[in-house]
Design goal:
about 190 residues; Yope Regulator, Chain: A; 2 domains; seven-stranded antiparallel sheet; two-stranded parallel ribbon; globular
């Protein structure tokens, strides 16, 4: 699946065109032999998602702070009744549309929630992978398959992700989520 999504991403560029790739993407495409020798690789720009802030209870849109991407992700802890939704074009290369960042009311952790386009049959593998990477403390992860939309509803406590800190910006946090999911999907494809 990650090969398919990356191939679709590459299909939007012809062989002589420049393409922006981050290190993970470039290494993966080279390993798979999917890069044309004529294609010029540019360093991908930093994540620049669009953000929207909403109330947890009502989903009512709130005024999204200016320069949200540069704010520390600890913002969701200081505003526990709100959540931040982010969309980024590169999320399509890992099978997600958007990510919600919020504080877990029970465990006090900063969590990332997203729908993941992975077949239901891979559920146990995903759970084991996340448990191996994050541990099994209560509130570390929850996964539930939604038959209605064919997505895994994934919720991970970022506090347990290597490299996470509440001082990271929203943009940096989303890059970390992207890397985590990308690496998970590469590992899943290698196992399948």
């Amino acid at each position: 699946m990650i090969t398919k999504w990356m191939t679709n991403y590459m299909a939007g560029h012809n062989a002589q065109e420049e393409i922006a790739l981050n290190t993970l993407q470039k290494e993966f495409l080279v390993k798979k032999g999917l890069l044309s020798p004529d294609m010029k690789i540019l360093e991908a720009p930093a994540f620049a998602p669009t953000y929207s802030l909403s109330n947890k209870e009502t989903d009512e849109p709130l005024e999204t702070p200016a320069n949200t991407g540069e704010l520390a992700v600890s913002y969701v802890k200081t505003h526990p009744n709100d959540y931040m939704f982010a969309e980024e074009a590169l999320f399509t290369t890992i099978g997600i549309d958007g990510v919600v960042l919020e504080m877990d009311d029970v465990f006090g952790t900063i969590t990332a929630l997203f729908g993941l386009q992975v077949q239901k049959k891979h559920g146990e593998w995903i759970k084991k992978y996340i448990d191996t990477k994050l541990g099994t403390a209560p509130g570390t992860r929850s996964l539930m398959f939604s038959a209605d939309d064919g997505l895994w509803d994934v919720n991970i406590a970022l506090d347990y992700v290597t490299g996470f800190s509440e001082t990271l910006t929203f943009n940096e946090t989303l890059e970390l989520v992207y890397e985590f999911v990308f690496n998970m999907l590469v590992a899943l494809e290698e196992e399948a």
